[in-house]
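Annex B. Sample input.
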Amino acid sequence: MILLLVQITAVIAVVYYLGRWRSAVNRRNAQTWDSLLARLRPDWSARELSEHFLWKEGVDATPEDAWGRMEGPKGLWVMYQNARVMLEMADYADRNCKGVDRLLLETLRSDAMQIRVCVLMALTQYAFSQASEGVRINAFRAASMYADMAARMTKLLQANAAAIVPDFVAAM
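Annex B, continued. Sample output.
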């Protein structure tokens, strides 16, 4: 009897997982550039960190200065969420644009994951030690990667969807 219950529970769990996975794939395939752009959080912008944000890689600030400009954990959280959206934008370009630069896509994917890990590390450190030197250094690394990723995303959009570049710039 117990074995039967375990089997039924396992089957139900697998069916539930496959149903959730299929609905996530359907949602992903139904996305448009506009829906992705709408998900970018404009309540903090990395423009504060670089004079040439979105057009040139790099950050024009020290770690202490960057921490203040990014408004501490608020800017880190926005970077975390926007990195996911830009990752989804890279995936969208991969699925829907012909002749897209594969190396650029892989770099964007790698950047997004590194940003998310770096932000989580900084937020965890911040929870235990407030704005210590380590937190500011990790936040600076995340901000630098974020600025680089945003510049690469602009390059990808200019090459494959030039019409939405102004919307992307406005959203960032």
